[in-house]
Amino acid sequence: LRPTLTSASSQKGYGPMIQLSRLGTSVSGADKDIAGLRGEFERVHCVKLPGLLEPGLFQFIQRQLANAKWYTRTHDWGGKTPPPVELCMEQNSVSALLHFLVSGDKFFRAIEQITGCGTIGHFEGRVYRMLPVADHFDQWHSDVGMGRLIALSINLSEQVYGGGALQIRDHDSLEIIHEVQNTGFGDGIIFRVTPRLQHRVSNVEGNVEKAAFAGWFTAQPGSQASVEYRLFGQGRL
Amino acid sequence: VATQRMVDEHVPGAASRFRPTSDAVSNCIGGETVLIHMRTSRIFKLNRTTSRLWELLVAGRDQNTIRRTMSEDFGVSEIELTSELQRILALLQQEGLIEAHTDLCQ
């Protein structure tokens, strides 16, 4: 298999079939469009959702990120290889807003329809930044466990960055099956979480950093309380 | 016709529209409509009636259309609905979730 490479612009012609806005999720695609995404997902285990964040909302979130606090996060990695390192945003009202936006029933149902993953009940994510420096990198991993079904990453970068591509490979053959750069502002990608696959984000290159909201749809029942918890006492936007 | 005129006359500015403010964010989570005011971080869970009202506001319906639609949806007379709608709209406006919107084209 030759790895397929998808750039941010190559799918722009489709328009935002699924969009998260201030007033909920809109799904504008016809059944055949959703079927097309499902076919692509079955083939390469990954699908891009161009324009997932409504532009106004993307700009609003961008402005809030400038005032956020960040800490260096070193992933728990078992000590065999150097652990992945990134900058992680402290929980605040922006992360609460992002969780709120992706936790809607309509968005969950759309993801289920595209991926065939079964019933989604919850989303858990974080906002991170990867800088174009040697000690910010990712390692091959699967993310399997904790009821994770599908991974989501939404590009929150201020500018178009180099590198930072999502690579997916077969767990056994180690062959790279798919590679995608998600550099469109507010674009999303979803990809499969399974023991059969591993993924990583390649090093960011050049002088522009990558920022993303990334996490997992899980099977656990939705918890309204967790959404409220995030929003209460987290300061004001 | 007389009843309809009475309802319309009973509601001040009944022909005007309200729309969500730019501070309002909403989503349907676990079957419930939830509103958040982004500057105050206040959360509002809507009951079935208010959810329907919100849906119609988001769709850009004017007050008369909203009242008629909800009257049909819930099997309640428009007269009965009028004061309740006024109360909820006032509350949403007070919380900064909606604002009056004038159609200049009309």
Record keyword descriptors for this entry.
heterodimer; A: about 240 residues; alpha+beta; 7-stranded antiparallel β-sheet; 4-stranded mixed β-sheet; 15 strands; about 25% helix; disordered C terminus; B: about 110 residues; 4 helices; 5 strands; globular
Describe it for me?
Chain A is 23% helix and 32% strand. Chain A has 237 residues and is α+β, with helices and mostly antiparallel strands. A seven-stranded antiparallel beta sheet of chain A has the order 4-12-8-15-7-6-5. A four-stranded mixed beta sheet of chain A has the order 1-11-10-13, with no helix packed on it. In chain A, strands 2-3 form a two-stranded antiparallel ribbon. Chain A is globular, with a radius of gyration of 17 Å. The N and C termini of chain A lie far apart (47 Å). Chain B is an alpha+beta fold and 106 residues long. Chain B has four helices and five strands. The model of chain B is unreliable at 1-10 (pLDDT under 50). Classes of the chains: A alpha+beta (237), B alpha+beta (106). The A-B interface holds A 22-25, 93, 96-97, 100-101, 103-106, 222, 224, 227-228, 231-232, 234-237 and B 20, 22, 24-32, 34, 36, 38-41, 43, 45, 58.
Structure summary:
The complex is a heterodimer of chains A (237) and B (106). With 237 residues, chain A is an alpha+beta fold.
Largest interface: A-B, 23 and 20 residues
Question: Structural class from helices and strands of chain B?
Answer: alpha+beta
H/E series of chain A: EEEHEHEEHHEEEEEEEEEH
Radius of gyration of chain A: 17 Å
Strand content of chain B: 15-25%
Write the H/E string of chain B, N to C.
Answer: HEEEEHHHE
Biggest sheet overview of chain B: 3 strands, antiparallel
Strand content of chain A: 25-35%
Distance from N terminus to C terminus of chain B (CA atoms, Å) equals 23 Å
Number of strands of chain B: 5
Shape of chain B: globular
What is the helix fraction of residues of chain A, given as a range? 10-25%
Class of secondary structure makeup of chain A: alpha+beta
Q: Which word captures the global form of chain A?
A: globular
Give me the side-by-side strand order of the main sheet of chain B.
2-3-4
Distance between the termini of chain A: 47 Å
Uncertain stretches of chain A: 1-14, 232-237
What is the average of the pLDDT values of chain A? Answer: 87
